[in-house]
Every structure is written in C-alpha cells, then in structure tokens.
Amino acid sequence: MADMRMIEAHPAALAGIDTDRLAECIAACFECTQICTGCADACLAEDTVAELTTRIRTDLDCADLCVTTGRVLTRRTGADARVTGAALDACATACEVCADECDRHARVHEHCRICAEVCRRCSHACRDLLGSLG
Amino acid sequence: MADMRMIEAHPAALAGIDTDRLAECIAACFECTQICTGCADACLAEDTVAELTTRIRTDLDCADLCVTTGRVLTRRTGADARVTGAALDACATACEVCADECDRHARVHEHCRICAEVCRRCSHACRDLLGSLG
Amino acid sequence: MADMRMIEAHPAALAGIDTDRLAECIAACFECTQICTGCADACLAEDTVAELTTRIRTDLDCADLCVTTGRVLTRRTGADARVTGAALDACATACEVCADECDRHARVHEHCRICAEVCRRCSHACRDLLGSLG
Amino acid sequence: MADMRMIEAHPAALAGIDTDRLAECIAACFECTQICTGCADACLAEDTVAELTTRIRTDLDCADLCVTTGRVLTRRTGADARVTGAALDACATACEVCADECDRHARVHEHCRICAEVCRRCSHACRDLLGSLG
C-alpha cells in the first residue's frame, strides 16, 4: 500500500501514533471520498432523483470531509492533537449520517449499498484512531 | 455580497438558522482558505523556512478545513445539524491553532499578522454560528 | 482586499506577472467556487430537480476546478508556467460550460442567473491572466 | 476495486468511454493526491527543507489538481468532453512537472522516489484516457 510506504519514508518521529491504524484510516478516508463522489453522481442519474436530494447532499458533505481529513492525517509534521481529533470527529460524523441515509436506499440502489459499506468502514477507522489518540 | 444573494435565491426554507450569521461565516471560511494558502506559500519563500514548518503545516490544515466547512455551510438542502456542528467545531479549532501559531511570527512576517487576524475572525464566526444553532 | 495584502506581503519576487490581474483572478476563482457550490445546492432543492441534473454536475466540476485554480494561483513560490497555464485553461473551460448551462435556466431561477454572471467573470479573469502570461 | 464496482452500479450509459481506462485513471488520481500530500509533508520535515521549497509547492499543486480531476472523472452524469479534457491535461501536466522535480531528489529521499513513480503512473493514465477520448 503506497501510503504505508510513504509513512515509513517520513523523516519525522511518529511517536504517540499507531502507524497501522493511521495508514488504515488514511486509506479509508480517500476511498470514501471517491465512493461518496460516485454515489452522489449515480443518485443524480436516477429517474427518482427528486427523492434522493438529501442522499446527494449527505454524499457531498461526506466526500469533502473525508478528503480533508485524509490530508490532515497524512501530514505528520507539527501535528496538533486538537485539530486531528476535531477533524476525525467531523469525518466520522459525516460518514455515520451518510451511511444511515445510504441504508434507506441500499435495497433499491447498489451504489447506495456500496457507499453505506464504505462509509461505515471509514467511520469505524476514524473512531478507532480517535480512541487510540487518547 | 454574492453569497447573501445566493442564500436569498435558495428555494429551501431556511428555518432555524440566522442567515446573516450564516452568510458571514461562509464568507469568513472562504477568505480564510485563501489567506492560509497564501501564508503557507509566503512562509515557504522565507529564508527562515526551516523555523516555519509547523506554521506551514498548520496553514495547510486550516485552508483545507475552511473550504470544506464553507462548502458544507453553503449547502442548505437536507442539512444535518450533527455534521454542520462537527464541521464548525473542526474549522474553529484549526483556525484557533493556526492563529496562535501565526501570532508567534506576526511581528516578523506581515503575512502571518494578516493570517492571524483572518483566522481569528473565522474562528469567531464559526463559534458564533455554532452557538446560535443551539 | 485581503488577498492583495497577502500578495504584497509575499517575500518572493513576482516578476513576470501582473499582480492586479493575478489578485482579480484569485478573487474570482474563490467567489466562483462558493457560488457554484450554492447553485448546485439550490438546484437540488428545486421541484424540477430532475431537469437540472446536468446543471448540478456542471456546477460541481466548476466549484472543484475554481478552488484548485485559486490555490494554484495563490502559490507564488516556484511557480511553473505550464501548470499555471493548464489550470487556468481548465478553470476557464469549466466556467464557460457552466455559464452556458446556467443561461438556459437564468430566466426561471435567480440562482442560475447569478451563477452565470459569476462564472463569466471568472472565465474572463482566467483567460485575461492566461493571455498576459504570454 | 471499489471504484470499478461504483462505475458498474452507475445508472447512466457510459457510451464513448473505456471504463477500464477510466477506473484506472480515477484510482491513479486519488492515489497521487495522497502521495503528493505525504511527500510535501515529508519534505517539510527534512533538515534540508530550504532546498526543497519548489519540490513542496509542486507537490501541493499536484495534490490539488489530482483530487479535482479524480472527482471530475468520477462524475458520469452530463459529462462535458471539453471540461474532462482540460482537467486531464492540467492533471497530467502537474504530474509531469512534479515527477521531474521528484527525480532530482529521488536518490536522497525515498519519499521523492515513491512520489515520482506515482506521479508518472498518474500522468500516463491521464494522457492515455485523454487519447482514448479522441
């Protein structure tokens, strides 16, 4: 996994952080950005788009918060625990809200089912990392 | 202000939100994105860049969290109070950490002084809007 | 204008670039990001959303390309003319396509009328700066 | 690969695009965003940061253009060939400039070597997709 190689190539000491959990959370954030961007667009192409507007909006927020959190986590130089913690909480919250919205459409739309699965993985990775930061 | 015109042109009911506070916070978030991006780059061009690495990193996080929060706030369709609240908290936190870091360099670098001023305005706008959401 | 103050506070020599045109273009890019994000969301809230899906998608692309181009332009350290030029061209193209799409709905939706106006201003600012780069 | 599943779950007809090439290019864009964000931060943590400022700036531009292009490509609803083409060209250009800069430091810094490799893969994927769009 390219991001694990990058973490290992970083010159800064990574004291106080579990690098496996970190790498998993970064990968989950970037994957979730992409999947939520795709789900928003797939919803937009459905005949029933008028019933999916909250779904789309939730996807857009989640995509934005995931890529931002993935970038914040990727930066290890001069990391601030308050910023990292607040970004992880915002990202996990957006993923949870998005997954709940996805679940309501998961039987009808395969893209919503995939999106729910990826959002839950990302929220768990964020909560897990947040817990390990103490 | 273009964003106030957009808020007024939005078809959704904006019950439960103070539109003046909202417009002010959106404008502050986009301004802060731009200023933090500029301050990171100006720091990078300083001869003393080696002493400014935490400064640069803090700017990059703040720029990312501000534009994401500005976008989340701009979306009014199907807004979720938990996501809005968590994004506002993450943005305000990043602005506060960034402003504190800026202050340490504000006498030497005019770009850090401007950045501290804009970050504080943005953190206040976020905390103010967060408080009004109840 | 905060961004003009930041440009003036930047330690790097800004040879070969017209700083007034640059500041105007940066401001146009950030304004357009916000307006396109707002117009996409306002379209999503319209009863006729099913007829506005191309409109929404065009807005989302334009918002993403504008903020990225605004950030690329804001960075003056080690600027590369090929990257600056290609980003300006992509941003101007997205603004032109978005403005054309907006115009088709501008009589019905005030948010599309505002968005068309802001997109045209941004595409002109990008083409103007691109021309001055030679 | 999650993004291939999303492409297959999309309701829109994907006529005129090679979905394997598309999925590969989207994956390359998101990977490159993450790697360039990481390389910028690793450079910032090096003792020799003062010699790496153009390197860092190039990484930041590349990260921004890659995530934007990845999002533009992920959206299939109402895609516009001019916007797709211009975004692909901007992304490929940023990747090429970044890879060239990386190569100059690849013997000394493993993170620059990895970054050069990922940037070249992404520029090839972009140029390849651009060529297939005709």
Class based on secondary structure composition and strand pairing of chain A? mainly alpha
Largest sheet of chain A: none
> What is the string of helix and strand elements of chain A?
HHHHH
How would you sum up the global shape of chain A?
elongated
Low-confidence parts of chain A: none
The largest inter-chain interface, given as chain pair and residues per side, is: A-D, 37 and 37 residues
Q: Report the end-to-end length of chain A measured between terminal Cα atoms.
A: 26 Å
Q: Rounded to an integer, what's the Rg of chain A over CA atoms?
A: 16 Å
The oligomerization state is homotetramer
Name the beta content range of chain A: under 5%
Number of strands of chain A: 0
Helical stretch tally of chain A: 5
Helix content of chain A: over 70%
Topology:
4 copies of one chain form a homotetramer.
Chain A: H1 2-9, H2 19-44, H3 53-74, H4 81-103, H5 110-132
Task: Report on this structure.
- The structure is a homotetramer of 134-residue chains.
- Chain A is elongated.
- With 134 residues, chain A is mainly α.
- In chain A, 76% of the residues lie in helices and 0% in strands.
- The mean pLDDT of chain A is 93.
- Chain A has 5 helices and no strands.
- Chain A has helices spanning 2-9, 19-44, 53-74, 81-103, 110-132.
- The two termini of chain A are 26 Å apart.
- Chains C and D meet through helix 3 and helix 4 of C and helix 3 and helix 4 of D.
